[in-house]
């Protein structure tokens, strides 16, 4: 689940442990607080990184799919 209340263009990418992009999307949000669920049911068990980027900032978080 990704949450933000900042307007702008967002790019989200999920990387596997080998650095390969396994999921990505781009969206534009304006004047709203948003929450987006990401369906990871097709991913194998393991460690992944999720990277959320805007023009001004980038955030990377690690998660484990069991």
Q: What does this protein look like?
A:
The chain has one domain (2-65): Sandwich (Immunoglobulin-like), CATH 2.60.40. 0% of the residues lie in helices and 59% in strands. The mean pLDDT is 85. It is built from no helices and 6 strands. With 66 residues, it is mostly beta strands. The chain has strands at 2-4, 8-15, 21-29, 34-36, 46-53, 58-65. The strands form 2 sheets. A 4-stranded antiparallel β-sheet has the order 3-2-5-6, with no helix packed on it. Strands 1-4 form a two-stranded antiparallel ribbon.
Would you summarize the structure shown here?
The protein is an all-beta fold and 66 residues long.
Multimerization state = single chain
CATH superfamily name? Macroglobulin (MG2) domain
Q: Write down the domain tally.
A: 1
Strand order of the largest sheet: 3-2-5-6
Count of strand segments: 6
Backbone CA Rg = 12 Å
CATH architectural grouping: Sandwich
Helix content: under 10%
Number of helices: 0
Main β sheet profile: 4 strands, antiparallel
Low-confidence stretches: none
Outline: elongated
End-to-end separation: 16 Å
CATH class label: Mainly Beta
Mean pLDDT: 85
Structural class of the secondary structure composition?
mainly beta
Instruction: Using the coordinates shown, work out and report the CATH topology.
Output: Immunoglobulin-like
Strand percentage: over 45%
């Amino acid at each position: 689940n990704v949450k933000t209340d900042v307007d702008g263009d967002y790019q989200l990418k999920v990387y596997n442990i080998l650095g390969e992009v396994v999921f990505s999307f781009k969206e534009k949000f304006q004047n709203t607080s948003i929450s987006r669920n990401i369906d990871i049911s097709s991913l194998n068990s393991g460690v992944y990184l999720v990277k959320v980027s805007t023009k001004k900032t980038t955030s990377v978080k690690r998660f484990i799919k069991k």
